[in-house]
Amino acid sequence: MTTVPEAAPTRVPTVREQAVEARRAGRVLGTLPTEQKNAALRAVAASLRRHAAEILTANALDVEAARAAGLNDALIDRLTLTPQRLEGVAADVDKVVTLPDPVGEVVSEVTRPNGLKVSRRRVPLGVLGVIYEARPNVTVDVATLAVKSGNAVILRGGKETVRSNAVLVRLIGEALSQHGLPPAAVQVISDPDRARMLELLRLDDLVDAIIPRGGAGLHRFCVENATVPVIVGGVGVVHLYLDESYVQDEAGIESACELIGNSKVQRPSACNALDTLLLTPTSARLALPDVARRLVAAGVELRADPLTYELLQSHGIAAVPAQEDDFGREFLALTLSLKTVAGLGEALDFIALHGNHTDAILTRDPVQAELFVQNVDSAAVMVNASTRFNDGAQLGLGAEVAVSTQKLHARGPMALTELTTTKWVVRGEGQVRG
Amino acid sequence: MTTVPEAAPTRVPTVREQAVEARRAGRVLGTLPTEQKNAALRAVAASLRRHAAEILTANALDVEAARAAGLNDALIDRLTLTPQRLEGVAADVDKVVTLPDPVGEVVSEVTRPNGLKVSRRRVPLGVLGVIYEARPNVTVDVATLAVKSGNAVILRGGKETVRSNAVLVRLIGEALSQHGLPPAAVQVISDPDRARMLELLRLDDLVDAIIPRGGAGLHRFCVENATVPVIVGGVGVVHLYLDESYVQDEAGIESACELIGNSKVQRPSACNALDTLLLTPTSARLALPDVARRLVAAGVELRADPLTYELLQSHGIAAVPAQEDDFGREFLALTLSLKTVAGLGEALDFIALHGNHTDAILTRDPVQAELFVQNVDSAAVMVNASTRFNDGAQLGLGAEVAVSTQKLHARGPMALTELTTTKWVVRGEGQVRG
């Protein structure tokens, strides 16, 4: 026996109807004091803990169905909640409670020569549409960040998570209600039909932003079909350029091994994991054998251009010849392509062609470092640090709803502030325009 | 005899080819010092003045062709350059030189517990696509703001301005070259075929933002067809709510007449001109006869709901009964709709339904004012000031490239800062993620 709710006998609302409710809820949520939003979020965390058994039972049914449908192990792993993971989700809600509320912040304030007091005030975006795949933890993460920043949100999770999401969203709604927040502030599109996702993408009169979280295909689908503004991200090729100045001694070579290893191996499925290592002939000669041995020992397949292939062969280190499409490619796996460049200029050209997400340089030369920082136009530029630091928590934002690789609105990790906009407030005493 | 250039015998480049050049130019422009950009802009202004005869000759041919094609007077007026208008355009370029350069600004800077130095640096968006209609002054305005903010721009003007734009863009390119800036930073799509506009809208691998400047139809076309992010704006219904506290005495009524008159009449074709006046039965009784007489004297047609219609009739003031679609409608002309509401709450609901651009309240009650400011979610909210102040120059931004009514990235007048984004810069000493 389970407590998963039966399909309701009533008509499923259209996405437009949901969005109208979300808009109304957003109007209320946008003006609530921080303490009331925090109280509701604390109640969400408490409810997740109190109803752990119910959540895990629903999730187990999702997992069972996913196995029956033959989904791969990686997907099933992302879908699966355990008591420990669920506690982590609740703890993340508690953490968001502690973050500052961006709403109401006065961004600028001036008095004009005619006496008008002109200010810009930070306000919620309004209604967010978030589209994601198997992970039920995203449901809670996103709902929490939306509520804290005063936004209503319509969640469209993968069909694998329907049962988990139904329970989670019901519990969130109940907790919001207890503290006077409109439960319609957090809604889920329960019917996983793609037509409903398409409907969401085109509600530009009601929804203020679409945030897709998933692979390149999902992002492309959103960009191609949405009339609502889309924030794309989370997809991109990550480069690291190893300047020879960094590997002039044992300590430098050891540090390069650690940094490149961490960038590639620490979590290869993440969007900020390294894809392509750029080397000069000299930096390759000085450091590549050591770097490559370390990577191969960690299970990395190296796809090497002719010069680095030859070098690795001569050291008896396993590698395969790189194909053309191994460059400008996001692997999301234990694979790394190696590319030789003449120097910084060629590295910059290569990154300009293929990069936009996270790009790093290892160098001891401050001029090279500054040239790299100036000229690489990516969401995050790293000097002598792992590419894995391009992450909301690591950069000090406390949490992130997504990592944007576009330039409009938000770039890099998006946290609470990126879920807001501003409005101009003008106060006068009868001024007219001459 | 004219100096308008003949059609070149060479193949017209595709928009993609233009965008590749723009991207390359943008990479150069993005790292140039402010003084070099300013020198180039000063040269642009000087060149416009020096070549006034050539520009005006080309423009006269555009105007002649427009007349022959039967374009309406308003459009022809917007198309027409005069010596005085051209001097105004050059003076605006000089003004942009004096504005602060947003590029390079450090937006935030922290040192993380692990010693990483994390900052965000303001950088240009990259490549802009700006689509507009008849006005050749926009060509220079937009090019100037783009160059100052380090962006390349692809301009797609109306077909009416082809000859004017060809000369203007050539002169701009020459001035940029003189100061070492890539002339491809400012390009025009010379072939006015709609297919080329469509090509521009879908170059999301090369173009960072589309800014349409025109009517609702153009904005809709961009939103429906673009895969490049679009900043929509310049279109919206403007409301003013007249609270009874404002019109308790002669001075208040006189001020209401002035503010409402200015909002409606000062430039009725502007997007921030008043469309709908909201009144309570009491504020209507106290002030509407005076307000209406003033408006009618200025040539305004009043479209009144039943209560205000009856009131105006009883005072012998001309009005027509409002139709349903006179509310939530942008007139861009000397027409104003009048709507009675029970009080602030109903006014807020009405504005939530129809507003998003500029909405004003006239009140002497600070509580009402604050409630209005809190609850109206529009690009600009005005208290006791003309709606016409929602304008880049009026709000102190110095210049504007467009007025955004969307929430992502920029809201309200967009000036130089809104043509930039940020990138994260992380400096370490070998840190890896644990």
Automatic annotation (TrEMBL), chains A, B:
What InterPro entries does the database record attribute to this sequence? Ald_DH/histidinol_DH, Ald_DH_C, Ald_DH_N, Aldehyde_DH_dom, Glu-5-SA_DH, GPR_dom
Q: Which domain of life is it from?
A: Bacteria
The UniProt entry, under HAMAP family, shows: ProA
GO MF, one term, reads: glutamate-5-semialdehyde dehydrogenase activity
Pfam families per the UniProt record, alphabetical: Aldedh
Question: Could you tell me the keywords of this UniProt record?
Answer: Amino-acid biosynthesis, Cytoplasm, NADP, Oxidoreductase, Proline biosynthesis
Q: In which pathway does it act?
A: Amino-acid biosynthesis; L-proline biosynthesis; L-glutamate 5-semialdehyde from L-glutamate: step 2/2
Q: Where would I find the Aldehyde dehydrogenase domain in this sequence?
A: 3-209
One BP annotation, GO: L-proline biosynthetic process
NCBIfam families per UniProt: PRK00197.1, proA
Similarity comment: family membership: Belongs to the gamma-glutamyl phosphate reductase family.
* Location, primary (coarse class): cytoplasm
The reaction(s) this protein catalyses: L-glutamate 5-semialdehyde + phosphate + NADP(+) = L-glutamyl 5-phosphate + NADPH + H(+)
Q: What class of enzyme is it?
A: oxidoreductase
Q: What does this protein do?
A: Catalyzes the NADPH-dependent reduction of L-glutamate 5-phosphate into L-glutamate 5-semialdehyde and phosphate. The product spontaneously undergoes cyclization to form 1-pyrroline-5-carboxylate.
Source organism per UniProt? Deinococcus irradiatisoli
Query: GO cellular component annotations, sorted alphabetically?
Result: cytoplasm
Name under which the protein is recorded? Gamma-glutamyl phosphate reductase
Provide the protein's localization: Cytoplasm
User: Known EC number(s)?
Assistant: 1.2.1.41
> Lineage, please?
Bacteria, Thermotogati, Deinococcota, Deinococci, Deinococcales
